Amino acid sequence: MSAFETLSVRVEDRVATITISSPPMNLIGGRMLPELDEATDALASDPDVMVVILKSSTPGFFIGHAKFGDIAQLTNDVVPETLETTPRGVVHVVTERLRIMDKLTIAQVEGRATGGGAALALACDLRYGALGKAVFNSFGVSLATGLGGGASQYLPRVVGVSRALELILGAYDLDAETADRWGYLTRAFPAETIDENVRAIATRIASYSPEVIRQTRRLVASALDGTIEEGLRDEAFVFQQFVGTDDAVHGISRLLQLGGETIEGESNLGELLGQIELKRTDATHEQA
Questions:
Q1: Pairing of strands 126-131, 104-109
Q2: Which of 188, 205, 222 is a domain's end point?
Q3: Is there a contact between 51 and 27 (Cβ–Cβ < 8 Å)?
Q4: Are residues 121 and 245 in the same domain?
Q5: Quick one: which of 33, 41, 122, 198 is 20 to 30 A from 249 by CA?
Q6: Has residue 55 been placed in a domain?
Q7: What is the biggest distance separating any 2 CA atoms in the chain, rounded to whole angstroms?
């Protein structure tokens, strides 16, 4: 990856953190979108990265909407005449990469996420918001431009069609407390602890077997695309591939060492499972 102006990338313990820094509001424009494209493309092809966190260092803002002066970046030179001749939007390229890459993607939202910024958060697998700080707004209808980030497709899948219509057509702000109740957020954390909580979740997940993470993420993400019978058959296939591997033997042995299959251990299973990880050595590197 080349040097960036609007973001930095840090990789540690198989967790990559993209931190947006384009004050005062992290509006999409200038170098931000090309740099997000380059950074996510590089991380998507990095086999050592298992989790990608998207966050901001700009107080009060996650990622904003497109700069109106740079909106030409998001449009074609010629207005398409048919649906078939319409290419994906440039924001869609990044959001879809976040949605389909074989990593777990996390949006850590500690400020306003509007327009394309809200769509980037929605495209991630997990979304965590800071109470009292995270606010979401998928507008466009109110400006008579329509939507260009992907909210029309992502938001109904997250909160349902009815709530998505209210938020999009009404252009309402959605605070973290309500977003948590509606399922827009995976979870809301106090602002003072969100960073350590998200880091702990990402590090725990990234410590497990990489290929099992990839395949299980795929199973869950595609669960609603087919029938339950097809999904169960796929799950059984994946289970049969992994259950006899060295990683599985290590995982089961480690759990038994920690107290698995005892009353005390099974009563604290979640805590014990957090102590199981592969033996590995990871380098830490940062790209500014």
A1: parallel
A2: 205
A3: no
A4: no
A5: 198
A6: yes
A7: 68
First to last CA, the chain: 9
- Spatial strand order of the sheet with 104-109 comes to 187-190, 126-131, 104-109, 51-56, 15-20, 7-12, 285-287
- The answer to whether position 148 is within a domain reads yes
Beta sheet of 174-175, edge-to-edge order:
112-114, 135-137, 174-175
Angle ∠(98,101,102) on CA atoms, nearest 5? 140
pLDDT in tens, 71-120: 776 676 788 888 888 888 889 999 999 999 999 999 999 999 999 999 99
Domain boundary (205, 229, 250) is at 205
The rounded distance, in Å, linking the Cα atoms of 173 and 138 is 8
Q: Which long-range contacts (CB under 8 A, 24 or more apart) does 18-23 make?
A: 18/43, 18/52, 18/53, 18/54, 18/55, 19/55, 19/56, 19/57, 20/54, 20/55, 20/56, 20/57, 20/58, 20/62, 20/63, 21/56, 21/57, 21/58, 22/58, 23/58
Rg (CA), the chain: 20
- Report the distance separating Cα 174 and Cα 93, nearest Å: 25
- Digit-coded pLDDT (tens) for 209-262: 999 999 999 999 999 999 999 999 999 999 999 999 999 999 999 999 999 999
